[in-house]
Write a structure and sequence with these properties.
single chain, 189 residues, mainly alpha, Rna Polymerase Sigma Factor, Chain: A, Arc Repressor Mutant, subunit A, 2 domains, 0% strand
Length: 189
């Protein structure tokens, strides 16, 4: 008997359409869940929305895959469904959207791109953990400067500090983040 991992996507889809054996759909899910998630994350820029869209995409596929007439087009179809869900999410947020059809085909074929996105996501998670470890004042200063885009002048006025005091606190905050971040990286290795 041939292992599921040795079957092509087209074979998995065809067999699933005939047998509706969840093992075949499960193998497609295993192969593409992470890629679809990072594709969605790249589009909607929000982790929770990307997880929801990815889960909903696969739920939708369980119902619609039986009607797919060309199993060899599964990957393009999968990412088209995910792309449409991303566009709907962005429209609900009131953002204008631009469709880039070729981008999902490139992502599927570019495993290095997915690996880079996975590494970036892990770094963002560590950064989020590090920010929670900072004292409140330092965290607010860093967030206002680097995430909310406030200038040093704005921070001076808000905090009633001199330019040099704001810059010094920012420098100390960056150093603290760097040391905590490195400690977290070292702890996971």
């Amino acid at each position: 008997m041939i292992a599921l991992t040795q079957l092509t996507d087209t074979q998995l889809v065809s067999i699933y359409q005939k047998s509706q054996d969840p093992a075949y759909f499960g193998e497609l899910y295993r192969r593409y869940y992470t890629k679809v998630y990072y594709y969605c994350l790249g589009k909607v820029k929000d982790r929770d929305d990307a997880y929801d869209i990815t889960a909903n995409t696969f739920v939708k596929l369980t119902k619609k895959i039986l009607g797919l007439k060309n199993p060899e087009l599964f990957i393009a179809w999968l990412f088209k469904v995910a792309n449409n869900a991303c566009m709907d999410c962005l429209k609900k947020r009131g953002k204008t959207v631009r469709v880039e059809e070729s981008s999902f085909n490139n992502l599927v074929q570019d495993d290095q791109g997915v690996e880079k996105m996975i590494m970036k996501e892990a770094q963002l998670n560590r950064l989020d953990e590090v920010l929670h470890e900072l004292d409140f004042e330092t965290k607010m200063l860093i967030v206002n400067k680097y995430f909310n885009g406030k200038s040093v002048k704005d921070l001076e006025k808000e905090l009633g500090l001199s330019t040099s005091a704001v810059k010094m606190r920012l420098a100390r905050g960056r150093e603290k983040i760097a040391s905590l971040f490195l400690a977290k990286q070292g702890g996971e290795a």
